[in-house]
Amino acid sequence: MRLLHTSDWHLGRAFHRAPMLDAQAGFVDHLVTTVRERGVDAVVVSGDVYDRAVPPLSAVELFDDALHRLAALGVPTVMISGNHDSARRLGVGAGLIGRAGIHLRTDPAACGTPVVLQDSFGDVAFYGLPYLEPALVKDEFGVDKAGHEAVLAAAMERVRADLAGRAPGTRSVVLAHAFVTGGQPSDSERDITVGGVASVPAGVFDGVDYTALGHLHGCQTITDRVRYSGSPLPYSFSEAGHRKTMWLVDLGADGSLTAERVDCPVPRPLARLRGTLEDLLADPALAEHEEAWVEATLTDPVRPADPMARLAERFPHTLSLVFDPDRAPDDPGVSYARRLAGRSDQQIAEDFVAHVRGAGPDSHEQAILRDAFDAVRADDAVREVAR
After folding, report:
1. pLDDT at residue 341, as a whole number
2. For 277, which DSSP code?
3. Same domain for 284 and 157?
4. Which CDD domains does this entry report, sorted A to Z (predicted)?
């Protein structure tokens, strides 16, 4: 069976101030063409279909168009909700839509009930694990502590239990939206840290033939059978080095697997440029970036006049301007943002405690801070679901 694995469409999202709807529509065209021309038997979409719980009408219309076109091809599609989606909204009408071959899996309680498709070698069971917010689903899965590893492990126990009761030789595919250990994140992914731990080990997914992951925006191979497709389009300059693709996966009769990356059309390349304003305007080696979306970091010791307007004369698609004067690390002029770069909320809070009283928090106080941050994230998740 030939699968096309994609995720993280983020319909409705812009790239800085540049609208992306046309590029997203171009991706949908490319998806449909790939399905038709490459003999795809099933499409899997591993979450974050939309960029927010209540997407703009234009994004909903594009999603509707994608579903109609996939259904018209007669190729089944299995889709889960991600942490950006409203699971309830995405799952409205799932029963009816399923009759057209579009299978929406947004209910955590149903993760052990697969969509079963057939090829000439027998059954392939597709298990959809929508994004599992630990604080909201721990009771459903009967886990004592709300954590990503605990709830995913419990969900996978249901998957394995169902698979064990199926005919010998049944192959299996799991769709999941999570941060798996070994994956490389980017700036455009929403933080899903709980209890100080965001990632789960790949071994959670042992026992299935292929795990189609969503959440991280870079295409990645965690193991041969556990992969991220990445987002089809860039959504932050941290993705400048990404090659945007989908996975074309061939699942053999015995569960053997081969995978090929299929490139996605990207409207413009991304470029992250650094230097003084005069150097950026004069350097002939930068000519290749003149039509790119540009993030410019200026290192001038004094902020120059009208930098954005001057940059736009050479790089008309400059979208982000950062000031980072070259200074010694101990220079008091080093920006607060630069001192905090790469530090978690927990680390920043612990540093603040140390600054105020002269000593950092002990282990008990660290646990209190961690619980407080988890409670805030859980409250945000509840409000998102209720919207």
Report:
1. 63
2. H
3. no
4. MPP_Mre11_N (cd00840)
